[in-house]
Amino acid sequence: MDSILSQSIVLPLLLLLVSSYASAHIPRLGLQRRASRNKPQQASTLDGLATFYYKQPLDHFNYQPQSYDTFDQRYVINFKHWQGVNLNAPIIVGFGSEGDVEDDISFLDFPIRLASRYKAMLVYLEHRFYGKSVPFGSIEKAMKNASVRGYLNSAQALADYAEMLLHIKKMFASQTSPTIVMGASYGGMLASWFRLKYPHIALGALASSAPILYFDNITPQDGYYSIVSKSFKETSQTCYETIRRSWAEVDRIANNKPEGLMILSKRFKTCEKLNGSDELKYYLDHVLTSAAQYNNPHEKPVRGICAAIDEAARKNSDVIEQVVAGVVAFMGERDCYDVFESGHPDNPIDPFTWQEYSEIVMPIGISGKDKDSMFPTAPFDFNKFKKDCKALYGVSPNPHWITTFYGGQDLKLILHRFGSNIIFSNGLKDPYSSGGVLHNISESIVAIPTAEGSHCLDLQEGREDDPEWLISQRKAEMDIIDAWISKYYADLLQSTQTLGAH
For 247-305, what is each residue's pLDDT tens digit? Predict the structure, then answer.
């Protein structure tokens, strides 16, 4: 029926793929909740909210029989602040990305602030193929079907959001309500692209930590890892040097046959015996990049790792013992550590793995040109990337499609002519800010960078100990959205008066 590689073929291929660290693993986008891993879990993030399902076409752009198949796509509405029908109250929309919509509801606080400020309806849209919005009801079934998984892409997702928003506005008689869309990370990219593609639906967009320029070699491949290294070096020179030396030490021990891998497994307390040093290096890469990406001013995870490493060094521990101390400081004390806790790097059932291998092709690597890098050289190798993609899915990636469909090359030259009402916010401690929009493009396409900010911090829950710069950043975003909405209401009134005069 379809051309998918059978599971019996894919799994052995995975073992081969993970055995090589020839190219750097691409750090995941998304709103990681490392800082809140110890927070008590509530019974349900949807308590008090209204959950709906929309019959969504599988394919918005073709008219083949399969295109008319539908799936139930989930969206959630918070009516708490909404002042009701026919009052043109704004609609605030949180775009789902590569996860369950409940995650966004739990950890994105800024949309709630806007809803309260404007007496607005607050809507959360779940991305197709995630959470409960999965064709055929099973992600395994959907992702194993080569024909069906082809419908998982950003253009289809944006068309989903367009249909759902028009449906919601019609259902609640709010056709003239201004709509503000926003998202974090990949969701932020979707928000900015939605404003460009569907300006008749979204009045404006807030794109937080959206690396829309990390495509098609617009951004140097070293950008991400350079910021990670810089964060550690600025925090502690000795910690940085320890990490820099550790990779060769891991290899040295691993090459001590036959017991080398067993020694590393015991010292790092891995849940399963390591099959190769690259599995451990993948895990350490994940720990270090996560700490840098989510290096918020409250928990300061990079400082925590370096404090532990430097303390171990003062006790004359060896390099491995120092790095183990850093891992424990970040991950917490555990009976064992799963090197694939963040997900297998080449899991064919994971929907975002498919997206990364098809169109979200971010050439992130360590070319060796950055002499201050604390990571071993691991350049992005598109030929290997393409080979891995074909092994997993039987198709080749399209590395140029994102810039072809949404733009990116000469962004400032082009967007200032026709684009408007987009905020790009970035924390410069976030490694993904290297692929973000950091300078104003026009009067209404603005950048709000913060020197000490981390990934998607501005959209998260406010705290009493928030630094003044973070409070000011959120206020600046509010002020810009205020101006968009005020102008919209003035234009709406003028339009109504003009129609009435005729």
Answer: 999 999 999 888 999 999 999 999 999 999 999 999 999 999 999 999 999 999 999 99
> pLDDT category, 27, cuts 50, 70, 90?
confident
Pairing verdict, β 422-427 and 445-450? parallel
Q: Rounded to an integer, what distance in angstroms lies between the CA atom of residue 254 and that of residue 261?
A: 5
CB 32 within 8 A of CB 61: no
Rounded (10°) CA dihedral 196, 197, 201, 205: -30
CATH class held by domain 220-398 = mainly alpha
Within 10 A of 103 (CB to CB), how many other CB atoms are there? 18
Please tell me the least confidently modeled range out of 34-38, 65-69, 136-140: 34-38
Per the structure block, which two tokens stand in for 223?
Answer: 């950008």
pTM above threshold 0.90: yes
CATH superfamily of 49-216+405-500: Alpha/Beta hydrolase fold, catalytic domain (3.40.50.1820)
* Secondary structure of 146-170 in HEC code, one letter for each residue: HHHHCCCCHHHHHHHHHHHHHHHHH
Residues of the chain with CATH 3.40.50.1820: 49-216+405-500
Reply yes or no on whether the pLDDT at 459 is more than 90. Answer: yes
Return the closest-CA partner of residue 184 out of 377, 7, 426: 426
* Closest residue by Cα to residue 158 from 279, 264, 41, 73: 73
Q: Does the structure show a pLDDT above 70 at 30?
A: yes
Radius of gyration, CA atoms only, the chain? 24
Is 18 or 341 the better-scoring residue by pLDDT?
A: 341
Side by side, the strands of the sheet bearing 179-184 are 50-57, 70-78, 121-125, 91-95, 179-184, 204-208, 422-427, 445-450
* H-run or E-run covering 78: strand 70-78
